[in-house]
Amino acid sequence: MCTPEERALLQLEEVFSATLARVNSLVLQPLLAAATEPSDAKDRECLQLLQQLHQSTQQLWETVEESLCSLRQRLHSPESVGLDALLLLRRPDHVLQAHKEYIEAYANCVVAQAFQKAAKKQSQYWRGRRKALRQLLSGGGAEGPVGTVLLQALRQPLTHHVQQYVLLLLRLQDTIQEDHPTRELVVRAAVVFGNLQSFAGQELDQAVATQALWPTLSTRPRDVLYSPARRLLLDSLDVPVSVTPLRAERVLLLEDALALVQGSSVHTFDLKLVWLDPGPDRRELHLLTPEEEFSFRAKDPQGQVVWQWKLTQAVCQALRGKKDFPVLGAGVDPSEAPACRCTAYTFCAEGRLFQATYEGEWCRAKPHGKGTLRWPDGRNHVGDFYQGLEHGFGIRLVPQACEDKFDCFKCHWKEGSMCGYGICEYGTDEVYKGYFREGLRHGFGVLESTPQAPQPCKYTGHWERGQKSGHGIEEDSSRGERYIGMWQADQRHGPGIMVTQAGVCYQGTFQADKIVGPGTLLSEDDSLYEGTFSRDLTLLGKGKVTFPNGFTLEGSFGGGSGKGLHTQGVLDTAALPPHPSSTSKRQLGLGAFPVESRWQGVYSPFRDFVRAGCPGELREALLGFHTQSSRELRKSQEYLCCDRSCPEDGAGSMEAVLEELLQPREPAALRQSLKKALSSSLHPLGKLLRTVMLTFQAAYAGFGANKHLQQLAQEEVRQHARDLWAAYRSLLQVALQRKGQTLEDEDAETRDLQVYSLMLPLVLPSFYSELFTLYLLLHEREDNLYGQGITNLSLFPDTKLLEFLDVQKHLWPLKDLTLTTNQRRSLVQDECFLSATECLQKIMMTVDPQEKLEVLERTHAEIQATVSRVLGREQQLPMDDLLPLLIFVVSRARIQHLGAEIHLIRDMMDPMHVGGRYDFLLTALESCFEHIQTDDMRLPPLPSHVDGGDLR
Amino acid sequence: MMAIRELKVCLLGDTGVGKSSIVCRFVQDHFDHNISPTIGASFMTKTVPCGNELHKFLIWDTAGQERFHSLAPMYYRGSAAAVIVYDITKQDSFHTLKKWVKELKEHGPENIVMAIAGNKCDLSDIREVPLKDAKEYAESIGALVVETSAKNAINIEELFQGISRQIPPLDPHENGNNGAVKLGKQATQSSRRCC
User: Fold this and answer.
1) Do A741 and A835 share a domain, yes or no?
2) Name one Pfam family in it (chain A) (predicted).
3) How many CA atoms lie within 13 A of B11 on its CB side?
């Protein structure tokens, strides 16, 4: 069954549809027809607005027809078509939308006074049509000027229609049972059209008020502010406010902007970027915008409330980009505008941000959060902002003046300047990777030019306020020079060492990039010059040359141009030839660069980080980050997202790192977890190790592989082990503190034990190849002699060698030998003490000095075991017997570079072992090594196998 | 807890004079709680009390053969004391001893304590070196001297006690660090490059 209300609705729609059709033919069509081919901009605008209105009328009419259709179907067969099939109930928003668009189009015409203008042009025509118009209006109101009548004619039917909608829907609602599902639909539709009613009311009021506003403004402000779609929300003429410190005689709150008008000038503020603070005084209101801050002062507290409420509403509306019309003092409380927003703004005040556009997140009138800043000159910055400044990770591109090249800074920023770790790729193809402070290189960093550059150069070291300062290494590959030493203000200054590709090296004191005063010059043939010389290594001035044979030449030197070296001095040939080891093993830089502070710049950011309690947000500033290359960035031009593949969650986070440190700390587990930490670049310890590896390679790889630097290198490795242990302890301390525990102190002895037995073996592999090369070079001479020695000894069959070494016959392990028929005992080779020999060879399999010592210990045990088996009883060998056997084993093991091995083990050995059994065994091995080099060993009593030329 | 001082002691002397026998006797005669793994008979340790300190002897054997003589500096570098052994039944071994003393004076660590042991005193009937000669020589060089018998355990303890007494007490300044200063280590570090 159909209710009378439904029938009434049908009737309402029928009437409205007919009205709309009439409005169209009577009003809109003639208006449009009259306004063809407008001459000036104003008329063009009018025509446009009328066309829009026409369009929305059409749409509204179609919607009404649709609704009508659904009503007719319902009334025709109420049994089969339910109430919920009505368009009004089924899609109230659709119907609403059509109404809204009509109202807005109408209101725009009101603001632009489109009807009045059009009517004026054809006043004659309209005067004749007054009667027809009157029919459109119910109950009078058709008097007055044509414009007003037209306004009424287009407005009244709609207002009436919506009013009836609400009325009928409310009535319909009462006819339906409480629990019926369609009741809810009806309720909703009633609310929707109720809202539409108030929307229409306010929109039309605002349109009228706005229309009234424009004539009151002088030309310029009007030209700036006028737009037909713009509405006035509040005018200081209605609710007075005064503005400080900006000057404004009138304040206009428009739909999307706040305008301060002073004379003919007008200052507008985008409402999306206006933040409000109620002032301390109840009559004040504080406004924040990106570039201005000002206060409104109302006459009374009520005035302040009105402004605050309206402004808040307007800001919210602007942010939503959608109109809604809550009524002042009615319904819900005005919601507060969000403090954090996302929008774009171009700065226009002089200064750092002049004409720059910021797009991204804002908080309280400042860029805050993620965003992009673009300057008109092509500079741009994408990254994190904090209270208006670059803060956190950010990428800055700075175009080069002429070419299509960029400087790209991928850095951590602090309060607007680079601070912490950063990677900078310059347009010149130079790359800096290192730390910054206040926008300048500061702390440790590596600056490298491309290998293709005309003068390829690489600096690895300390910086201070953008200049090379402190300990640093510079390699100039075009000159074939490497400088290791102190810097100041971008120049070599203080003690330094120069190593050249040719193998010549010198040490001296530098000032303003030049060596001053006497220095030490070592040539490749182990000659030593102490005195003054020039940059191109010409001896100049007083000095003394010590030749490898012990001769000395002391006097003054001078270089004739191209005529060779001139000297006047005394040649002393009386001195005994020095031991070769003392001349060839001279070490440079001893004591010149205290090892404790040599690479402090690498460790200091870490220490600062730990001192700050390892805050997660600074982890990246310490460790660096992984980003796309700048080239990819330039290509994508999509700077708003600068993702870093730096997992903040899971294993990478600082919390996880610290948590892991607290895992069981017994030696084996600790070794494992330290090993893992040191191998991860996301772990602070791993990062430290990587960085010190860079410094080590910068100094000692390539032509820095110079034997005169061995001492510097080895003390550095041990210091790194100490520093990394200290670093581990400081992290552990933070981890414990977070749990409310404290770290127990360790005494010097425990620390040494941990450094040498735990940390050093873990870090040594990272330095081993460069370090071992230095030992190889340093001990080359002995290793060659030793090599000759074992080559000679290898000509001996086992029994001959045992005899030659005076090993007592009863210790010869001959019963181990199984001989084939045509083998004679005297020809057997490499069979005796085979187990010990094979054991000793394992010394080359590891880099861990501790393991090498253990190999040595096992070798000894193997010798003992073999002897005990030969004798058939336990025998503790005294040195008289042990040493010859050990020489036998060493000569058979044929370990290459044994001298380098021994010295490396000794230098890297835990000092705790000094004097102990490891030291003893190593000394025994060293004595074998020494002995094999002696002439004694190179005079074998088997002349048939030996080239007589080798004999001395 | 008593402070432990590690003292490196090296054994010098001709082959066959019983260098390692003396040490074996010294080390094995008494049960030692602090005994650590040793390297056969060529490296042994033993800890003995001395005053309010414990002396841990780290005893390094050397090969006595003439041909290995030149290797000795590696062994005696960093030693706090040297025990130089001769065989009272072999005059030659006393000559060798004198060579060792001379070398130590010239190239050995500074302030090394020297102790002369005339071993095999149980064979005094075939003695070749009179005790008087040994005592006079020892006095002339400011060394300790005892005649020992490793076989019969004569004067072995006394030999090492004598060494203990000759070791200068710790510098009170260095003693601050709970006393555990390793003299041997310091001596070694200061003299490592001397040879």
Assistant:
1) no
2) PH_alsin
3) 36
